[in-house]
Design the sequence.
């Protein structure tokens, strides 16, 4: 996966432990739009995305607010 450039990378794994960091190293974040579905303000995925040169990084707080508005 290191050579594959994705336009959008969506993180939908609930785990935020350090063991998952090694699986992120296989992705090329350069110029990607990254979206973490978790509500955490900061996560390992967000950190790795930032370090990897992602163009835009978002967490799941917007989704949480949208769900609250619908309820």
Sequence:
């Amino acid at each position: 996966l290191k050579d594959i450039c994705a336009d959008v990378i969506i993180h939908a794994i609930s785990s935020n432990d350090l063991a998952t960091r090694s699986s992120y190293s296989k992705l090329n974040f350069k110029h990607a739009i990254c979206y973490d579905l978790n509500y955490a303000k900061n996560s390992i995925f967000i950190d790795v995305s930032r370090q990897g040169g992602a163009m835009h990084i978002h967490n799941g707080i917007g989704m949480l607010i949208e769900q609250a508005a619908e309820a």
